[in-house]
Amino acid sequence: MLIPCPHCGTRPVEEFTFLGDASVKRPTSNDPASMDQWFDYVYLRDNPKGRFDEYAHHAGGCRAWLVVSRNTATHEVYGCVTARDYAKAGGKS
Amino acid sequence: MTSFRLDKGGLIDRSSELNFTFDGKAFTGHQGDTLASALIANGVHLMGRSFKYHRPRGVISAGASEPNALVELRDGGRKEANTRATMVELYDGLIANSQNRWPSLDFDLGAVNSLASSMFVAGFYYKTFMWPKSFWEKIYEPIIRKAAGLGTASKLPDPDKYEKAYAHCDMLVIGSGPTGLMAALAAARSGGRVILGDEGSALGGSLLSEREEIAGVSGYNWAQGVLAELASMPNVTLMPRTTVVGWFDGNIFGAIERVNDHVIAPSPYEPRQRYWRIIAKRAVLAAGAEERPVAFGGNDVPGVMLASAMRTYANRYAAAAGKSVVVFTGNDSGYRTARDMQAHGVHVEAIIDSRTESKADAGGVPVLRERMIANVSGGKGVAGVELTDHTKISCDAVAMSGGWSPIVNLACHRGAKPAWNEAILGFVPPETGKAFVAAGSAAGRMLLSECLADGASKGTLAGKALAVPKCRDEAFAVSPLWWVKQSTGKAFVDYQNDSTAKDLPLAAQEGYKDIELAKRYTTTGMATDQGKLGNVNAIAILAEATGKSIEQVGTTTFRPFYTPVAFGAFAGPFTGHHFQPVRKTPLHDWADELGAVFVETGLWMRSSWFPLAGEDWLASASREVLATRNGVGICDVSTLGKIDVQGRDAGAFLDRLYCNTFSTLAVGKARYGLMLREDGIVYDDGTTSRLADDHYVMTTTTANAARVMAQMEFAHQALFPELDVTYVSVTEQWAQMAVAGPKSRATLQKIVDDLVMSDETVPYMAAKEVTVLGGVPARLFRLSFSGEHAYELAVPADYGNMAARAICQAGEEFGIVPYGVEALSIMRVEKGHVAGGELNGTTTAADLGLGKMMSTKKDYIGRMMAMREGLTDTNRQCVVGIRPVEPGDRIRSGAHILKLDDKPSMANDQGYLSSVAWSPMLNMWIALALVSNGRARHGERVRVWDGLRGHETIGEICDPVHFDRENKRLHA
Ligand SMILES: [Zn+2]
């Protein structure tokens, strides 16, 4: 699999470390009433077939955290943006 | 010995004479031979013994699918078992030995297995060796291992080198027969970057073996013309001896280039093999088709081979499989063998054709229709055949053709299944998308003209398709021919695993009707050849036995790799000391000079203890502790992760990372920090110092340095991108040493420039930028892990050895000692400081006795989850001290804690010893332990049960701080 890093260009998957679903958002509240949101954030993940946005750390390259969008069934890679841009865009690649 | 070398023809260099040995016997061959062709030319047909029955076996094929002619090639560290003689290029000095025979290939005692063959039917592993159970390990397994199995591995290290490489192209063409050459030429003329790979020693594929014409010249000459043009083009890379073994995501192909397998030893600085990852925008599978054997009695007698293999040996290698040949076929292609052998002057007795009619040209050879070979007579070589009508024909070789199977393997490596094509009686590749297409006979196009046209069309990258040269097509008509049921002898479907045609109906009868189950039950298709020859016959026979169509039965799963790959090729250069880097600290030379014993910690080499003559590790570490606590010691702590954090929001960022607060830390001070994971469990710890308003330097544990850095990058970039902060790992930029003990200040004072060191100028937890040794920039921290009055001094890495030597010199008058990780560890257990044994991924801050550090005034990673009921339960195991009640008793790490009257069991388990040390200060073994509700149990006597080592003692739970509980020494 090849990943188009916005900084480094197209690089082999071996240079990257993955961290799962990028679409989950860390809650901002520390109110105990928000505990359910925190459980969801820490533990609940979907495992979709098809398009999936996933965190990838370019540990063997520029060290940026990226969000790779790929098809989990075919491994076709649709695109890749920095996690920073992804976060600023409100969780969209 | 009679020569079976034909007088003329073949692509061998008759002027060369290559000497080689097989089972110790000397032979000669020519440049251009394979080991198999050279043996055939020398009249050697017996090349191995079969797996279960130890039957004599000869070569079946002339290529990668060979199941029988497997040899141990080379010797010593270069010995390679299960090497296909059909793929081994002959070289001068080649050494090969047959396998799976005892005591000799010619006389094999294991052949008695054939007599007891009812024992070895389908599922024999499961049936025969089940009972009694106790027999398995002692009797059955050793016998099976000795009697069965293939070649033996060399136990010596491989002296050769292997490489890994990447290649990129617009078009990868796999296979260099007529289809592949046209595809490569079309792509190359379109201007794309082309790689043409072929597993053969020479490019040309079937054109090297067949007698046919293209564009008015011989197929061989036409191929040479195309190859010459390709070789002249800068955008084309030709890769012979390169087997494409796998198709992976992103149209990436794995390929093994046999760079130096064809010479006696690789030249220096060259690898034996190279593992390529070829990233192809598009690829064409032009791997051709594999001829199928037929299952009939004695279809494994040496001298019985595929019809196409017999032609290849004659046409390409000028080696005759026999003097008198019978061809057995159910399709037109067998007729070519009859004609070609006749053209070479070999007598062809007859063509046995299972069909009622055929339009193919028999070249004058008698054709016996609607008959089949029932049995082959002969043991170590063919003596004759008996047909289904009981006709007997004498001959010394049999050519067989059951039809052709497109080589679909690569197209199926990503999960798609091939489809049955009734017209050609073969499975054809599944739809694999535009980036990878099959062409020619690999796609089921069985005529030469179709192959040329298909290659031209699939290879074209842009513009007009290539003009297709004219050729004459051979007839191709095929009828089903899988198994001659009238056979009385063993009819093999899978040669390598000795599975017979009868095994499959038996498997079905016993309930293993699914092809995947039947495969495992009969072991059909499970050997090193992965059923390249036998699988389709097996599927057809199983289909009949279960009353299904071949399509309904389907194939088993095709997985990488197409052919066996050497482990060396996967490992590449990453073996021995190239396996992983070695990290030496900036103080390595200093420690080495002082006789340090180094220990691997991750990649680091850490100085572990500094023994004097006659000391073991414990004596050395104990002396180091005493000298440090009584005077002064110096220890290399450079492996701690060091991260420089700067920016307006540096403090705010650290507040998010740690459970305690750093934004309030005064400039010039250090603070211990505890980092949690988002699930509330402790992640890492270390001290962080504030050097300026917007400048911190944090430290991590040695083990977590890289992970913490990655976590920081994630937290900043993905979670808190609004923070204005930058950070960089400076672990390797700074040499850091702990200087501890009552004389530490007096020692350091002698090398620090200007500064007069006192409790006022360098108070406890101070962090100061200073210079030492006349201007060397340094950072001075008053930190203590040992519990002593102590400092840490950091200097730029290149000054490390110099500074450490200077400190040793300065401390000489106080009896300074270097101390290692062992002494460091003893002192931290004496002081009850937690480390790796306690920060073990299951403990909370409260478990470690550090619950008060958790701020309630800010958000930080792990805050919310740490509040969970399960993580705040008072019965959780928390850190305590344990001492043996009898001071002379030894306790060991990992021992479990039980109540005094309880028996050892999971239900009674109270916790375990996480860190144990011999305390030279207390003159006894002491421990830190994780014990249920331990803080409320100080003073309780417990059983310290070490089931693993069979040892038990009585201990007492105590405060984790074993030594100097009042911290008097820290401030002394
Ligand atoms: Zn990158």
Which characteristics define this entry?
A: 93 residues; alpha+beta; Folate-binding fold; four-stranded antiparallel β-sheet; 2 helices; B: 972 residues; FAD/NAD(P)-binding domain; Arc Repressor Mutant, subunit A; Gyrase A, domain 2; seven-stranded mixed β-sheet; six-stranded mixed β-sheet; 27% strand; elongated
Structure description:
The complex is a heterodimer of chains A (93) and B (972). Chain A is an alpha+beta fold and 93 residues long. Chain A is 16% helix and 35% strand. Chain A has a domain at 1-24 and 53-88: Folate-binding superfamily (Folate-binding fold). Chain A has helices spanning 35-43, 83-88; strands at 2-5, 9-12, 17-21, 51-57, 65-71, 77-82. In chain A, the strands form two sheets. In chain A, strands 3-4-5-6 form a four-stranded antiparallel sheet. In chain A, strands 1-2 form a two-stranded antiparallel sheet. In chain A, strand 5 (65-71) and strand 6 form a beta hairpin. The mean pLDDT of chain A is 93. In chain B, strands 8, 9, 12, 13, 14, 15 and 28 form a seven-stranded mixed sheet that branches. In chain B, strand 21 (373-377) and strand 22 form a beta hairpin. The longest helix of chain B has 15 residues, at 705-719. Chain B is elongated and about 115 Å long. The model of chain B has no long low-confidence stretch (mean pLDDT 94). The interface between A and B is medium-sized, with 32 and 21 residues. Zinc ion is lined by residues 5, 7-8, 58, 61-62, 64 of chain A. Zinc ion binds at residues 5, 7-8, 58, 61-62, 64 of chain A.
CATH 4th-level superfamily of one domain in chain A:
Folate-binding superfamily
The unreliable regions of chain B are none
What is the typical, i.e. mean, pLDDT of chain A? 93
CATH first level of one domain in chain A: which class?
Alpha Beta
CATH class of one domain in chain B: Alpha Beta
Strand-residue proportion of chain B: 25-35%
Q: What overall geometry of chain A do the principal axes of the alpha carbons give?
A: globular
Mean pLDDT of chain B: 94
Helices and strands of chain A, in order, run as EEEHEEEH
Number of strands of chain B: 50
| Alpha carbon gyration radius of chain A | 14 Å
Number of strands of chain A: 6
Tally of individual helices of chain B: 22
Radius of gyration of chain B: 38 Å
Enumerate how many helices of chain A there are, as a single number: 2
Report the sheet with the most strands of chain A, covering strand number, pairing sense and barrel closure: 4 strands, antiparallel
Helix amount of chain B: 10-25%
Range of strand content of chain A: 35-45%
Distance between the termini of chain B: 96 Å
Structural class designation of chain A: alpha+beta
